[in-house]
Structure formats: structure tokens, C-alpha cells
Amino acid sequence: MLNKTLDLIKKNGLILKKKYGQNFLIDDNIMQKIISALELDKNDLILEIGPGLGILTENFLIARKVILIEIDETAAIFLKNKFDKNKNVQVINSDVLKIDLEKIFEGEKNIKIVSNLPYYISTAVITKCLEIKKNIDLKFMVFMMQKEVAERILSAPNKKSYGSLSVFAQYKSDILFIEKNVSPNCFLPKPKVTSSIIKFIPKNNFEIDDAEQKFLFSLVKKSFSKRRKTLINCLDNFCGLSKNKIANVLAQNNLDLNIRAESMTINDFTNLSLGIKKILDSEKIAS
Ligand code: SAM
């Protein structure tokens, strides 16, 4: 893969762009792990974010539809030429963060998203994909990212890496480690950090609706906003509520009044959020 990548870069006069996080995958073994995690099927719609030189993409051509979103204009033109004869391939030259993915997926079935993520936007892309509405037939996402981000995503209460991203990602999806340690040697140019591959399988049986989830995640974000403070202090004045009222909800849920966000399970956050919402709703009715 290294020779193929170097050859493509040289023959097409491509310049590697650091600002777009262009670290191309050059390891066959790791590429096979991504492909196998995707469980490719001819009925699939594969969306690849940041296809670069399209080497990983070559493996998806059996799919019913392959959509490529690439920000780098030179790479996008190269990809359009490369896959010119493959009528099932569509290249979109755009920033993935500016694209309405739900619009692209409307009416589609068997959707899978894959990316060797540009690391400068890995959490933003993961968050965007996890926010895709559950009426969209998104089977799963397979993403390569910095190991440090993967660890935060899979972290558990009382671990240093546990935070709002862990709660959000684990609430929204079942998560599997496909590969924990992908060496910098597997990329050209070598990144400074070790990477990991994770598969996210979106959940679709939530007990709370979209509006309640939005409220839950704003609460989770606020709860982790000041790591050294107790939860009650972080949430002081959250939606105009006093510390006393928050303390009452904690007590109702058998949670210690001095608890910190990093010790709260996802279930604790859900109960806290429902309790707070109940107070806010009753105050709204009363006013
Ligand atoms: N898929 C290729 C591979 O595995 O070798 C390239 C992966 S490289 C880590 C990241 C790719 O994402 C680059 O091609 C880069 O140009 C592209 N990219 C960076 N920012 C992007 C954005 N905001 N939207 C879409 N593509 C982006």
C-alpha cells in the first residue's frame, strides 16, 4: 500500500495537506480490519468521509451506492476521474460538517458510514453522526481516530478519561473496539499519536424523546464543565434552578449530595435529567 500511495501522489502531482489531517492509511492488515468490520453487502449505501486517494474506497464498489465526501478539491477531482466508470459512486466536494447528512440519507436503506477520520475534527464528526435521527436506517459507523479519543468514548465512571463524550456516545450507541492500537507506522505521513478503530452501532429504543435527550445532554455537558466542583456546584442556576432544588432531585434518586459528574453513571444522569425536567415543567404550569 505504501508504494501504491506514493505512486498515486507522484503521478497525479498531489500535495499532502496537513491542514486537512491527511495521514493516508498504508497498512493492508489495518485496511482489512476496517473492511471486515463494515460487513459489506451489495444492498449497502456506504458513505465514506475523507476518502483521500480512494484506496480504501476501492473495496466498497460492490455496494449499491457509494457516497464520498472530500473537502480537498484536488483530491475530489482525482476521485471523480478515478471512479468515473463506477456509476454507483458519487463524489461530493465539501466539508462534511457543513453537509446535511439526513437529507442525503432520506429514503435510503442499509446505510453504513466509514472513515479514517481527519483527527482535527474527529469528535465533531462522531457527534454529528451519533445525532442522526433514528428514523434513518443507519446500521453502523466504523471510524479510525486518535486512541485518546477512543478511550474517552469507551471510558467508565471514576476513570480520568470519563466525560460528556463518553456519556453521549454510550447513550446513543453500542460501541466495539475493532483495533485498540494502530501504530503511527501505518500512515503516510506518520501522525504523532497511536490510533484506534471503533464501531458504533446506533441504538434506537430510547426511553426518552428527542427533546428530552437534548435536555439530558445539555445537563451532562454542564455537569462536566468544572471538573473539580461537585455536581451541585456545577449545576447551580442550571435553567434557573437553585442548588436546593437540584439537591432534592439527587436525594430522590439516592445520589450523594457531594457527588461529582465523573462518578455518575448514564442511568444516574438520565434520572437526574428527568427529575429536573419535572420541576421545570411544574414551575411552568404554575406560572
Ligand atoms: N481515507 C484516506 C485514507 O484512509 O488513507 C484518507 C484519510 S485522511 C486521515 C483524512 C481525509 O479527510 C483527507 O483526505 C482529508 O482531505 C479529508 N478531510 C479533512 N477534513 C475534511 C472535512 N471537513 N470534510 C471532508 N473531508 C475532510
Key phrases:
11 helices; 287 residues; 38% helix; 2 domains; binds S-adenosylmethionine; Helicase, Ruva Protein, domain 3; Rossmann fold; 7-stranded mixed beta sheet; alpha/beta
**CATH fold descriptor of the largest domain:** Rossmann fold
How do the strands of the widest beta sheet line up side by side? Answer: 4-3-2-5-6-9-7
**H/E topology pattern:** HEHEEHEHEHEHHEEEHHHH
Q: How would you name the CATH homologous superfamily of the largest domain? A: Vaccinia Virus protein VP39
The averaged pLDDT comes out at 94
Bound molecules: S-adenosylmethionine
Number of domains: 2
Mind describing the biggest β-sheet?
7 strands, mixed
State the total count of DSSP E strands: 9
How much beta, percentage-wise?
Answer: 15-25%
- Catalogue the unreliable spans: none
User: In the CATH hierarchy, what is the architecture of the largest domain at level 2?
Assistant: 3-Layer(aba) Sandwich
Overall 3D shape: elongated
Our measurement of the CA-to-CA distance between the termini, rounded to an integer number of angstroms, reads 67 Å
Please give the share of residues in helix: 25-40%
Number of helices: 11
CATH level 1 name of the largest domain: Alpha Beta
Rg over C-alpha atoms, rounded to the nearest angstrom = 22 Å
Helix/strand-derived category reads: alpha/beta
